Structures are given as C-alpha cells and as structure tokens.
Amino acid sequence: MTSQLRVTSTFFSSMEMTMDMHDICNSISAWKAVILKIFPRLSNTSNQRTMKLEKVTFQNKEGQVLSGRLEFPADQHPHNFALFAHCFTCTKNLSAVRNISRALTAQGFGVLRFDFTGLGESEGDFADTNFSGNVADLVAASDHLAEHYQAPSLLIGHSLGGAASIFAAAELDNIQAVATIGAPSNPVHVKHLLTSGLEEIEQTGLATVDLSGRKFTIKKQFIDDLETKSLAEVAKDLRKPLLILHSPQDLTVGIKNAEEIYIAAHHPKSFVSLDGADHLLSIREDSHYAGQVIAGWASRYISFPEEEKIQTNHHVVASLDTDDGFSTKMKVGNHYMIADEPISVGGNDHGPSPYEFVSAGLSACTAMTIQMYVRRKGWDLQHVEVHTSYDKRHAEDCEDCESPSAKIDTFDREIKLEGDLDEKQVKRIIEIADKCPVHKTLHNEVKVNTKLVP
User: Fold this and answer.
1) pTM for the structure as a whole
2) Closest-CA residue to 178 (of 265, 72, 73)
3) Residue 411: beta bridge partners?
4) Would the N or C end of the chain have less CB density within 10 A of its end CB?
5) What is the tens place of the pLDDT at every residue in 420-437?
6) 3-state class of 354 per DSSP?
C-alpha cells in the first residue's frame, strides 16, 4: 500500500604541457574519467540550479555598442570571471557557447559571452571588421568587466575566436590562463573558408561568400589583416598557462593546428582531445564536457579568493559583511552553507531563507523520526518524503484580523509514505510524525538568550 497524506500544523513561535600529437590524442582518451573523478562536482551540472543572466552592452574602440550576456553562478558570487570569444561568423548564442558557459558558472565562474562587431545583436558592419578588430573587441569586453564587475582572469576562444583570445591575452595583464577550442594555428587559415570568393576579392576588393548557409560580405582588408598575424610568435611569447582542446575529427580546422599551437607555446600547456566532436561542438555532451574540463584545468592556474572559515563553539554561527547584502555565511555543525533572501526582497538567492531553514529542519526531523520508529517496529516502509512550507495566516477565529499580531506562523506539512503498510500503521506513523523533536520545539514555548560578545 502506498500512502500519501497531507498534514497541516499551526505553530506559535518567537524565532524569526613536446609529444607527437597523434600520441597525445591516444594517451588522453581516458582524461574525461580521470577529471570527473578528481572533480566529482563536474560529473553532473545539468541538475544544478539555474544560473543568473544579465544583458550587458559596452562600446568597442570605434564607439559602436556591442551586446553580451553575463552569466553568474546560481548559489554564490563569482570567484573569477571568464571572457568567451565565439567562432568566425558565429554569435554569443551558439549552443556550444551557452553550454560551455553554463558548465563554468556551475563551478563558480561568472562568464561574459558577447557578439563581435557586426554580428548578432552588436552594432557595426561585419564587412568592415577584421581579425584585429576581434582582438580589440575582447580587450574592450575585458575593460568593461574590470570597470563594472571584476577583471576577467580566464579567456576562452572557439575557432578563430581561439586565435583572437591568444592575441588578446598577450595584451591583457589580468588574464591568467587561456583555453582554445578548435582554434587555427594561424588566423590566415580562415581563407580556406572563403575560396569561392577569393578571386573576386582580389579583383574587386570585396565579395559575398556563403558561410554555413549565410551570406557575408568580405573585403580585401579582412584578408590583408589576417596575413599580418603570426599566432606562433604570439603563443611563443605568451608565457601564460594554455589549454588546447581539439577534435581529431574536426573537418573545418584540422587537428594539425592544435599540434602547431602546442609546439609553439611554452609550458605550462595542456592538450585535451575532444574525440568524436565536430568543429561547432553541436552535440551538447561535447560542449558541456569542454566546459567541465576548462573549469577543472583553470582551477590550477588562476587565483581564487581565500575565504577564512568561520568558527564557533556553538552549534551554528552566521557571519554577514556589510557588502554581502543578505548573503550570510554559515557554519552549521561541521557543514558550511549560505543563507540568503529571494531576489524579490533584495537578496541574491544564493541559499535558503531563514524560514526555509526552519522548514527544512522540520521536514528532516519528521522523516528521521518516522524512519527510526518504523525500523524499531519492523514495518515495511520503503521511502518517506516530507514536504513543508511556511506562511503567516490569520487565525480562523481572530477577533482583530487587521492587526499584524493576529497572524499565526503556519507550517503546511505533507507526508508521503511508500511501502506495504496497513491503515492502522499509517495512522500511527502520522501520530509519530507529530512527536518529532523539532515539531515539539515549534509548539513549545521557546526562550532565546542573547548577549553581546567581544
């Protein structure tokens, strides 16, 4: 018999990495399992709380407005910010960009992804842009974060955006680590995508080319600019940690490019094979994995703010700085957590509210009490769930319902029992639920002794 019951209780309370690239690919086939073992939290971020998103705009060096999205972790302030450079003619909304960003926010990073000049929602004419402009856009994005949030320490680039990221990192002292995904070893590599219009570009100065089903006007200045850039030289002088992710099956930018970047760069450098993935990482699992790997790798090379663990001789301590709003650090027994208030009332929603903690205590205590009782009785209870909500309501027979004091602290508790239980056993279990210690505390008179300590 499976039983689900709803019990409403009213309580009065006064508490408010030089190797051959082929060998490298073969040797890294098991990296995913290793990384996920070292960083167990990376194994599944799909069930994490939804990240927070802000629409941001900033100006490039020409004064044109660029559009971006800034993603924040769901349950904490970002420990670091990352800047993402999308692929050639892509936008910030490419599914791979979003998936990688979300894998990073799940590990505490804030991530800014934006549209390069002339693409997506950003102002400007793409025909007038070039690779140097992409690098300048990244510098402008970094400056915006530094001015309004926190300077980014991690730079990530996909395809041509990966090449641009290496160039930009050479200009930005705040960038501590760089990760590239499917990046060409030289920006001029992109010319092979324009073969249908190269002759026309050389003859007339511009041409309209078809890239993945979309028409783009490419001017000769774009080609000329590419031919002035040497990524190998920049990578050699970068002297910053570099992670190179590339698929051996990439048909757009071949795996040889990853080998050339790797050879050019100095240690610390690392390579991870995205075996089986296409250039755009169109399969969610591939892009999500890339994000997980970047987060784990970066944790070795970027600085994390040191947080002093709060201590207490009591069972619980709450610590709140004036700049934290309502986001309160807590030590509860041997466990550390955050309490907060919803965004609707000025909080950051980084953790449960105080009354949600009270409701959690009631739910947990009820489930434990029931479990303890049925074990002693030897009854067949396979699973118990206790759902609890808190509210303030007017007493049904209150004489002065307009007075705030006439409202009663109310906990609505629903109990779901699964197992082979008869009606008499179910009735007794519900009676026992009302005898859980937290339940009793909420019903009894409570005294709080307060004193000031130095």
Assistant:
1) 0.69
2) 265
3) 9, 390
4) C
5) 999 999 999 999 999 999
6) helix
